[in-house]
Model the fold of this input.
Amino acid sequence: MALFVTEHRHEGETCPARDPHLAAGLLQIVNPENAKKHGVAIRAEAVASGRHHLYLIVEASDAAAVRTYFAPFGQLGTLEVTPASACEEVVHRGAC
Done:
């Protein structure tokens, strides 16, 4: 499994948290048990306060699997999936 940092951004005016039905559906996507069924392991998630940015640290077989699973977020704004490494791995490699 590879490590990825995923970032979703949307405008304040279109914040999905304002729509209870939409928000409930998105919460199901960030549910670790649901993600696991689709081959995505969510290690951490957080929303930057007041910025409308959702960050997730996930593991999956490849970036395509991450993009596919989190596609609904991309429909509501942007979705960026970036390959990542654990700090220890970077130190052993000697470079980011």
The radius of gyration is 14 Å. The chain is about 35% helix and 30% strand.
